[in-house]
């Protein structure tokens, strides 16, 4: 039986739903002050719908878009007017319209040149 979309979720339920380990969720609580689930007796965490949306956003920014923890903190604090370029896009995106094959070829040439220089 599935819970209603507006229902609170325990850390175990949220972990299973999103495929994120519980210790990661607890770590994110220490790094992102905006993420404050409701706690009850025995320190049981209950994530409200807003908390769940925030966890999903943090997860997307970190694990899909390639941001660092600090980059996500800046975005959530509202200090960054534009979202900074994720680390993954800086590495994977070719410059100014170059095609990927040409870029890879140039990098291999540089690698070979450096290897020859070190061998001498």
Quick one: how many beta strands?
3
Low-confidence stretches: none
Biggest sheet record: 3 strands, antiparallel
Strand order of the largest sheet: 1-3-2
On the 0 to 100 scale, the average pLDDT is 84
DSSP strand content: 5-15%
User: Which structural class best describes the helix and strand composition?
Assistant: mainly alpha
The SSE order reads EHHEEHHHH
Helical content band: 55-70%
* Overall morphology: elongated
Cα-atom radius of gyration: 21 Å
- For this structure, the CATH topology of the largest domain is Multidrug-efflux Transporter Regulator, Chain: A, Domain 2
Describe this structure in words.
- A three-stranded antiparallel sheet has the order 1-3-2.
- It has 120 residues and is mostly helical.
- Helices cover 57% and strands 8% of the residues.
- The longest helix has 20 residues, at 100-119.
- It is elongated.
- The chain has helices at residues 11-18, 22-31, 49-64, 69-77, 87-92, 100-119, and strands at residues 9-10, 38-40, 44-47.
- The chain has two domains: 1-82, Multidrug-efflux Transporter Regulator, Chain: A, Domain 2 (Orthogonal Bundle); 85-120.
